[in-house]
């Protein structure tokens, strides 16, 4: 399935330029001007008449589909509320309204007359970026394991008329960025939605190889269990010990910058199914633990967007993939394992497995001499208790990195919230039998998990994103593709693009 296409053009002949749907956004109480006025005239005053009748008053969240005229098959009026209160939230609402109005229609093309709003350039740019991303994401259908595929959305092409008011280059760039982010979000959702019997660590490594195919800037290497043993990755290996599926450490290296530029490293938790291991989880909703590779999925999605955008920076995506299962060979509570860093870990609970695969991947990350390292993980139920599904939990050992990530989250409405990682929490991880325990007791579970990881990330700027709540929706059940938008924005900002 190829994603929708977008183009920005300065269209002069608004009343005759053929489209299956002309989209006219309007502010409350504003006088019709530009394209809106031309379309009104062409349609014998249909827009003015709708306003006069009170059928449509341009309030935010309102829309009205009118019959078209000539080559313009339909005219969609979309309310944007009061012009003085048009902010990112209103822009998002506008984008959602566009989808809602076209969702069930047969239109395959549409033309957005954005200039009718007379937005400032900055506002127009984030509206277009969000619109392209939103429409691409709305077109996503999960079909992999259905015998009858779902009906696809008909719309495949959107033209944005800049009316000369907005540089077509900047508008095109915004659309391109939004589209790439949407494609990345869908990649993450699709991988996370796949069931555990299909999406195994081996499946993920094949997916990475596929992503690198025909791509000179992207190379993939997979560290197999034998090599992990040589590297001393005893923590990672302790998680896959009970599974018939071998663990894979997948490394995707994107070289878009100069050879000497330090890479931005993303590390994803890729537990393709988390049964809890010997510390078996309760049965209810255990199926949701197929989403426990949501962090890995977001690394795939972000890499996909980075490749698609051809960013001028170096990025390394690392996925620590394993399945957490009970068996005769499984790691047991009380077992002590040695991590790649040399630190010994007492595995008091085999269900705290995410930090075990991550700690070795984070130690491995140091070899890339990273500019920053960001790990993404469905790490703790405690994070869901603390923040629900709205915010991703953010932990960092450097304020600048934390602020940059928070800003990227705000910009993309893929928001994170910073959590404390004070020294005082570290003592909860004390063990009598190893350097560190893998659980920190009942209080502050997402914080002690982050503290555990912090023991392995002392040599570089590091942030940890706990997406246990934000990575999926429960009704309808499905992956959200978060935080691909946040991460891609963060990388776009670093690339100055
Ligand atoms: N994958 C889970 C975390 C999780 C729970 C994600 C619910 C999404 C929804 C993780 O591996 C886990 O089991 N964490 C334990 C840690 C505990 C044993 C210290 C948890 O949160 O209960
Ligand atoms: Mn677990
Ligand atoms: Zn887990």
Provide structural commentary.
With 497 residues, the chain is α/β, with parallel strands linked by helices. It has 2 domains: 5-165, Leucine Aminopeptidase, subunit E, domain 1, CATH 3.40.220; 186-494, Zn peptidases (Aminopeptidase, 3-Layer(aba) Sandwich), CATH 3.40.630.10. 35% of the residues lie in helices and 21% in strands. The chain contains 14 helices and 19 strands. The protein has helices spanning 34-42, 46-53, 88-102, 121-138, 168-193, 201-212, 225-231, 234-240, 294-309, 354-365, 381-387, 399-412, 445-454, 484-495, and strands at 5-9, 22-26, 63-69, 72-79, 109-113, 157-161, 218-223, 248-255, 264-274, 314-324, 335-338, 344-347, 372-377, 392-396, 416-418, 436-437, 462-466, 472-474, 477-479. An 8-stranded mixed sheet has the order 7-8-10-9-13-17-14-15, with helices on both faces. It has a 6-stranded mixed sheet with strand order 1-6-5-2-4-3, sandwiched between helices. It has a 3-stranded mixed sheet with strand order 11-12-16, covered by helices on one side. Strand 14, helix 12 and strand 15 (416-418) form a beta-alpha-beta unit. Helix 5 packs antiparallel against helix 9 (294-309). It is elongated and about 80 Å long. Zinc ion binds next to strand 9.
Rough outline: elongated
Question: Beta-sheet strand percentage?
Answer: 15-25%
**CATH classification, class level of the largest domain:** Alpha Beta
Low-confidence stretches: none
Biggest sheet features: 8 strands, mixed
Number of domains: 2
- Secondary structure tally: strands: 19
Provide the structure class: alpha/beta
> Cofactors and ligands present?
ligand BES, manganese (II) ion, zinc ion
Kindly report the spatial arrangement of strands forming the biggest sheet. Answer: 7-8-10-9-13-17-14-15
| Helical residues, percent | 25-40%
